[in-house]
Amino acid sequence: MSGHSHWAGIKHKKAANDAKRGKTWSKIARMIIVAAKNGGDPAANLTLRYAIDKAKAANMPKDTIEKAIKKGTGDLGGVSYEEILYEGYGPSGVAVMVEALTDNRNRTGPEIKRVFEKHGGSLGTTGCVNWMFGKKGLITVGAANVNEDDLMELALGAGADDMQRTGEVFEITCDPSAYEELKKTLDAKKIPIEVAEISMVPQNTVEIDNAAVARRVIAMMEAFDDHEDVQNAYANFDIPEEIMADVS
Q: Where is this region: Disordered (predicted)?
């Protein structure tokens, strides 16, 4: 299972967990606040619309969403967040990108560095791995829920540029500009979507064929995901299904 699709699935399951919901809402609220700085109308602000979609998917209350928008537009007072991209390497040379929204870079930077080092990785310099990734719309659909040929035809007709089966899901990717239309098309056909996000998809992957190393990589990604300032963590690991079964 490649890092982007498999990790997206793990995040999706964690976000659905009630124990994690408060943290998930807090992260999405930050995303909305930052997006709303460029305008509070989601019809004219695609980034805000995407953030609101994520909030609704996470069952965030409407008044919480509206409050975050007002904080972003300045109608309500609030903390100012800065967007920072951290790049580095995990176990076995896995490339990692960490997107953070923080109100204190002097706190967040050293904490991200410690997460890398604790799990056998290292924080790198700006641009060291960014070139290995490309921004894509990423949607996954459970393979048991749909006919592959039908899904392929529908997805390509709605602007997808690729679809492949990875484990128990079909992974559909598209240009970010086609993401909204693709998601809308699948929703209209009532096709159950497991993950839908704008993601940084790796151009190449590093295969992890050792269960112990795989556990360290997953533990590192989970540590990033649990950090309150981290919005997204992306990596280019590829864990074969038989190894993933041991890890799980």
A: 1-21
